[in-house]
Amino acid sequence: MNENNRLIEAFKQTNYQVAGNGIRDIQVLKEALRNYEGHQESDIYGKGKIIEDFQKKMAEYLGKEDAVFFPSGTMAQQIALRIWCDHEGVSKVAYHPLCHLEIHEEEGLKELHHIEPVLLADKSRLIQFEDVVNMGEGVACLLLELPQREIGGQLPDYQMLEAISAYCHEKGIKLHLDGARLFEILPYYKKSAAEICELFDSVYVSFYKGIGGIAGAILAGDKGFTKESKVWKRRYGGDLISLYPYIISADYYFNKRINKMKMYHEEAKELAGLFNQCHGISTKPVEPVSNMFHVYINSPKEKMESILIDIYEKTGIGLTGYLREIEAEACFYEVSIGDQFGNIPKEGLIKVFQMLDESMKKIKE
Amino acid sequence: MNENNRLIEAFKQTNYQVAGNGIRDIQVLKEALRNYEGHQESDIYGKGKIIEDFQKKMAEYLGKEDAVFFPSGTMAQQIALRIWCDHEGVSKVAYHPLCHLEIHEEEGLKELHHIEPVLLADKSRLIQFEDVVNMGEGVACLLLELPQREIGGQLPDYQMLEAISAYCHEKGIKLHLDGARLFEILPYYKKSAAEICELFDSVYVSFYKGIGGIAGAILAGDKGFTKESKVWKRRYGGDLISLYPYIISADYYFNKRINKMKMYHEEAKELAGLFNQCHGISTKPVEPVSNMFHVYINSPKEKMESILIDIYEKTGIGLTGYLREIEAEACFYEVSIGDQFGNIPKEGLIKVFQMLDESMKKIKE
């Protein structure tokens, strides 16, 4: 077994895990279905009570005219950008170099739509107002991801967001929100989802990040936009005869967790604080603005895996199931707080960080 | 309430329905999940035991090197045609004018891939060997749908199929099988799925037609083909973090119904025989070659709806929930036999067809 497998196996053996809502297994679906007795009918190709009710609920929550349930955010966001490009008659959008569309979708936007992105900012920082002003002509749509996941989940000041929105509105540039983790940032901004979404022409949200559902996404905007998006959903093969397994679980876990986002944020700040007290470890951001952050460790990956496995075995508490190498001498991983953090015995957590700090000190020596 | 709604409402009130496997409701999912106790882990972005086991099982069943689970056939088939076009460096495929890609996908193949189809045969008949020979140069892939659903589920002779396959193989034209209803035709051809699939380079099968699952499809072929298809699946946003609700139900209902296809076929022939004995009603094909056929009725749609509602109310047996107008004086609908046919009391069924025949005679007078 290689080191990677050893770490994930040791992690799975722990009694408590610091992050997440638990194992992604079929019990997640069974729990959501428990509330649905009787013979509630399936949605059929985008129609029917089960899908229409949820779309209406999410449109209201996001303060948009209409909303469409999609099997995935990948599908929903490519479609959003295509629609805005078609409206402007151009094939250019702008987003961050670590945007999901740029690094996780096998060039889908380019291969399927021949849309070329302008990459704003650089990989290490957020898009700023100046980046937007200087992005050049001919951009149909700017996509902003809140929070910017690949740099630890960072957020611009709300005033910056308002300024970007006003500028785009003035220039006729559509503004699209990659809100994969929108629910998770509401406590930090102290805004409602609708208040934030009002700054954007179209919005995507996900139900398997902080919400902890199975899969699925909502794309919201005005009625003309959502109507077009349904045509594209059919073209993509996303207009499934039945999406209800995802819709039921999205709705169930939305109701279960939407009011826990403030708690997750507080717990993320607490946990990040513990990491930042350890030698050779820091978090990005230093103070989380959502339920997520990245942990940066000044230690070679293999050495750190052995240290973690030892801690897991001695405390029964797991921090992460993987580490990713940055350079030969450092590694990092991502944390997203969910229901599991609250279950950890405090004395156990203190012990974990004592052991971690001591091990890191030994590496330095 | 308009006539359409009256018919579907009356149909839903019946105790027995002649076609299908029952209402598409959440109990379909709950039944499939009942076998899965414990903590079986989700598939994660196309990996994991739950998806890999099913893909392997279906690859073996179809006699192909490899298989990939897709959320939909729309997605799977566009991708298959794109891959074959890329291999040949052309943008032309051939299929029937009533092919799913031509009439049910909002021009997805053209809008997403700029692939132009050559339409073979005409809307009223099957593609013949001569159509293939005369289709012209530059076609990367020929798609054959077995059975051809939109003309009642018709099939070419097996010898014709072999001749088309041999011709395409010789000419270097890829042959793709739209096997949405492949399982359903095995009893007629008296062939295994693998024997039929051997004639094709790539194959798609569906799990919510005769199998009666929730949604989902398998695309099978050689390993180079399936590897490419996974890249496109990611591009489409079809590589969901979890597809297990569809996989579990596909597997469960495949096991439950795959051996019932011969029975469904026999029952379809019996039912078609009953229709063909009625005045002014005929089926296409006259003798079904699968579990499906179309019912053609020489009566205006509205009049026929009233007749059917009367029959449903008096017998408690429902034939169909909809009728589609052909011309002012005729209408038709589609029948697919499933588990429900066997539950109907024989004397009730006889009564239904007596009433139907008498009503049709009165229309004539």
Describe the structure.
The structure is a homodimer of 365-residue chains. Chain A has helices spanning 3-12, 26-34, 49-62, 73-88, 100-103, 108-113, 129-133, 158-171, 182-189, 193-197, 223-235, 244-257, 261-276, 301-315, 346-364; strands at 16-17, 66-70, 92-95, 116-119, 141-145, 174-179, 202-206, 217-221, 281-284, 292-297, 317-318, 324-327, 330-336. Helices cover 46% and strands 16% of the residues of chain A. Chain A folds into 2 domains: 3-23 and 260-364, Aspartate Aminotransferase, domain 1, CATH 3.90.1150.10; 43-241, Type I PLP-dependent aspartate aminotransferase-like (Major domain) (Aspartate Aminotransferase, domain 2), CATH 3.40.640. Chain A has 365 residues and is α/β, with parallel strands linked by helices. Chain A is globular. Chains A and B meet through helix 2, helix 4, helix 6, helix 11 and helix 12 of A and helix 2, helix 4, helix 6, helix 11 and helix 12 of B. Chains A, B: Keywords: Pyridoxal phosphate. Chains A, B: Belongs to the threonine aldolase family. Chains A, B: This is Threonine aldolase.
